[in-house]
Amino acid sequence: MKIPEQVKRLLVVNAVLVGTALAIRFYVIPKDLVSTEVHRSTTVERELAKPVKFAGSETCVVCHEDEGTTKGKSFHRSLSCEGCHGPASGHAADPGAIKPPAPRDRKFCPVCHAYDASRPTGFPQINPTAHNPLKACIECHNPHDPSPPETPRACSACHAQIERTKAVSSHALLDCTTCHVTPELHKTSPRTALPSKPQSREFCATCHGNDSKQKDPPKVDITTHGTPYLCWQCHYPHLPEGR
Amino acid sequence: MTPEATAHLSELLAQVTGFIYPNEIEIHWSILIVVYPYITGLVAGAFILASLENVFNVEEVRPTYRLALLTAFSFMMVAPLPLLLHLGHPERFYEILLAPNLTSAMAMFGFVYGWYLVGVLLLEVWFEYRRDLILLSRRAPVPMRWFYRAASLFSTDISAAALAFDQKAIRIITIVGIPSAFLLHGYVGFIFGSVKANPWWSSVLIPIVFLMSAIVSGIALVIFLYMILAALRKEQVDMKCLDTITSYLFYAVIVDFTLEALDFTHRLYESEESVRILGSLIRQKLFLSLIVLQILLGMLVPLGLLIVAKWQKLSEDGRKLLYFTAVILIQVGIFSTRWNIVIGGQLFSKSFRGLMEYKMAIMGLEGFLTALLLLVLPFVVLAVLIKLLPTKPLMDEAHTPA
After folding, report:
1. Which of A7, A17, A33 sits opposite B95 (nearest CB)?
2. Is A52 on the interface with B (CB under 8 A)?
3. How far apart are alpha carbons A86 and B379 in whole angstroms?
4. pTM of the complete model
5. pLDDT value at position B401?
6. Distance in Å, alpha carbon of B101 to nearest chain A alpha carbon
7. Residues B34, B334 contacting (CB under 8 angstroms)
8. Which helix (H) or strand (E) covers residue A131, if one does?
9. pLDDT at A121
10. What are φ and ψ of residue A77, in 5° steps?
11. H/E segment holding residue B160
């Protein structure tokens, strides 16, 4: 069968188009961009080719054994040395010439320890503006063993949110220890030694019972009101006015 | 967060109404994504109109065949621009075609687009104009002669057999082209309809609604251009042709309206948990663009005008006036449809608790002026094409060998 003239011409044009596309495909587009499994198939090689910056904690403790041992028993045991001191492969290669920095101001520690409502309860959180202003963190805390030296504002150092709620409630003037018995260990190991909560209705009745000698607190008949529940199962003690 | 980002967020937060997720502050798909399905719809509609004559032998619409074909072709050339500009780096677009991700619907659409532009529209235009290009390459003065010779791919054969082959080729291309046109616009609806998390889009009817509104807008555009062109050339409008096309337009509008009403009624009857926020969306944010522009002005009024024009035995001038008004209103209505789907679908929170604002920028890549430019550009391309390629077949007296 004779191929019409116009079809022959179209075939030539198509051949040119396909040829151009193939040329672009194999000569212009980078080879590692053709795979769609990852954005660029050479990403891993490219990352591997970058110079190594970190030495790793194992390298640090070879020379800094004391710091390693102290840190290994402290709350900071899971942190890497270079998390605070920065990449240290240069220092490991030539300890005399390159010294990794140590954070000695008030800016670094609040990255983790500034108050943030999304942090877990019990995680040490402070208000960086109000917490011992102008003093560097390292003046009171040893970063390799950051157990609180003492807690000047006791509970509010960690439980800032509860403290702020309580501060505007009618229980504002009560100390936390009025209701909670707190073992000393709680300050250094908050999760292993938890404070107690009132376990009897009579505890609240000391102020709120009809026969209480306190004048101001609202009174209820503790024998009939809300039995058999404990008071804090219905009333939030840190903001009892709240509903 | 940088101070610039904070300032930007503060400015945006002032626009937030009700309850939304934090990542819903900004409307990501802007006016450019409204323009994109609008233009692709015009392509599909114009091509389907062009196919009426070729495949279904509707002789009455012959005067608009070439115009419809050129319209589809020129709008198709501009169609991907809004999308490419919106995505950024339009200069890299060919990479998705040459290194394709076979599991991405969007990437695969590149092939549908490429096929439709080159394999259907360009090829059909070439076969349709081959004879005229050869004649023009003999007739035109020197610089243009070269252009026409190149455009005809240096073809010279205008024998009866060759022309018959051209006609056969056009017919086959059109038969292949109709499903391609459906695929082209059905695909755009498919992308929206498959966004499961968005109750305003997630409907199997969306691709069909897109398709029918595409047909409506494309036919209306060709009628509009045909009337404008006749007025500019001071030629008589072929009323038989106009009456036939407007009849098709009338039926297409009815089907489109029915489908949209069905979709809407179905949502109401189904009454999923999203129905309340969609109700608020329509009442508060889309009242003007959906109820007034899309349904009332863009659908019911043109339907009324077409009914009056068809059954009131109006004079030619009266019919032309009503047709012209109707097709302009239909364009407004279809553009509103695209707006309501694209922007409307992003205006409510995925928590179903509040509504957002969209404030269109005037300047900038995603702004009003860019959108306007993109809407005008296909008309410029079309004007150039019409200047180069006659919308009526050339007379036979020039049919002499060089």
Report:
1. A33
2. no
3. 61
4. 0.70
5. 44
6. 6
7. no
8. none
9. 67
10. -60, -30
11. helix B160-193
